[in-house]
Amino acid sequence: MAFWWALFVLGFAYAVCRFLLMLIPHNVPSIDVDASDVLDDGNQTQENSFIYVPPRGRTPQAETKVQCYEPATMKYLGYFPALTPVEVKKRVAQARMAQKAWAKSSFKQRRQFLRILLKYIIEHQELICEISSRDTGKTMVDASLGEIMTTCEKITWLLSEGERWLKPEYRCCGRSMLHKRSKVEFHPLGVVGAIVSWNYPFHNIFNPMLAAVFSGNGIVIKASEHATWSGCFYLRIIQSALAAVGAPENLVDVVTGFAETGEALVSSVDKIIFVGSPGVGKMIMRRAAENLTPVTLELGGKDAFIVCEDVDVEHVSQIAVRAVLQSSGQNCAGAERFYVHEKIYSSFVSQVSKIVKSVSAGPPLTGKYDMGAICLQEHSERLQNLVNDALDKGAKFVVRGSVGHIDEGAVDQFFPPTVIENVNHTMKLMQEEAFGPIMPIMKFSTDEEAVKLANDSKYGLGCAVFSGSQRRAKEIASQIHCGVAAINDFASTYMCQSLPFGGVKDSGFGRFAGVEGLRACCLVKSVVEDRWWPYIKTKIPKPIQYPVAENGFEFQESLVEALYGMNIWDRLRALVNVLKILTEQNSPANNKRRDD
């Protein structure tokens, strides 16, 4: 009794000490990042004060500069050079030199780097969101949800669990290697390359960077030509934090340009992470194949949003509208196909229409609008073509939100939120990734039909299933061929940064985030060593030493049965035969025969 009481006291004391240590704040220095040239204080120079009109009919790849502008106002932001292949290779070489030193850094130093970033992000949320909003057209709320929260969640997960998943992991040695010890080691790959999309300019840069740097790599990121202005500012934050922990220069870099820049990056790094379209993803795979460079592809999706008849319609309607309008109607969250049970179809359509009708789009930084601008030039025209195709094939227009006061030059950058019903899978709107604020709603009558409809897509990123019965919702989700699934919620899987993120089919392959994404930045090395070295060493049994004995195969047969026989008696019988053969081989007479 005294022993157990002492053990309890020690355990309680340990728990109290751990709790008290949690109350002691870490000593995290602040960093100073120059933002004077990105703040819109009304005192811009004449060079950066005009309205930018993007040229039509010319391929951007032919340009030597990446021109940047606010999609919501068309206000000019400046330009960055389109780097040549030679310049890209030089940047990668610099990162490679820096990585050799960083690979030897301690996890303590890496965690301090993360804490400095986290502190800066929390203290400068408005600045980060405003820059994202100006460069991509999203609202401040959408920037906070998609940029700030997801990044902070990833940092805190790495702080609490990152080291654990990068330490050597010991594995079972099996029956034949009981005298050995086996483990998996996780070493840095070298320099990771990332080519990221424009929809989340802050998070899309920080997401691969955090995993790569924490696992001991360097990283070079090609920012999207549609979000270069913000990406280059976010690099300043990273470099300042690295300098604060004494990391080598050039460990993290951002390169700017078009397709040629991206191709050069793919050819220069040890692993490539790509977030973008299936078409570009296939081109990257072809280029990566030349050097057998491993790739992770996240190629978008057309997620199914399934609503069963036993839900709270008002509650689910709010989630549905948020899902399709997330990130200023750019639909970065991925919900593009809505399947609603026929029993509640009319009430669901009515409820979401009421919500959408109250939504207005306009310049996001005015603070008056629920939705911002479309980032891509001429994308609103493509969205309208998808709507027209659906209407021509029998779909019914339900309602549209409103567009507020916008400048004449930015009219084409806005697309009002739109609800369409009576859709089917012959329509392009239900097959092609729209990437816009359109909610096409289709009815179903059975769970089997809902599953069939959800799987009738070339994409397979995610799904969301809503039902009053959680068991039913899980059963439906388990049958949908996709990489992530949310039960009675939407996009919650991405906020759980311990989970891997990625899809199947045309949505790509490989995973980032979670343990799988962190280890994907590593050289995974299997190691086997002697458990009791130097007392027990590997020695080849005499029957199979060269020259192999006549009964060598008999020995092997018995050894296999002794290790893996189907029952204990067969294994014991085989073991006796193994010992018998070894005894005969070790006899003086047999040794003399071998010598002869």
UniProtKB/TrEMBL annotation:
It comes from Pyrus ussuriensis x Pyrus communis. Belongs to the aldehyde dehydrogenase family. Keywords: Oxidoreductase. One of its GO terms (molecular function) is oxidoreductase activity, acting on the aldehyde or oxo group of donors, NAD or NADP as acceptor. Residues 63-527 form the Aldehyde dehydrogenase domain. The active site is at E298. It holds the Pfam family Aldedh. InterPro entries: Ald_DH/histidinol_DH (IPR016161), Ald_DH_C (IPR016163), Ald_DH_CS_CYS (IPR016160), Ald_DH_CS_GLU (IPR029510), Ald_DH_N (IPR016162), Aldehyde_DH_dom (IPR015590). This is Aldehyde dehydrogenase 22A1. Gene3D superfamilies: Aldehyde Dehydrogenase, Chain A, domain 1, Aldehyde Dehydrogenase, Chain A, domain 2.
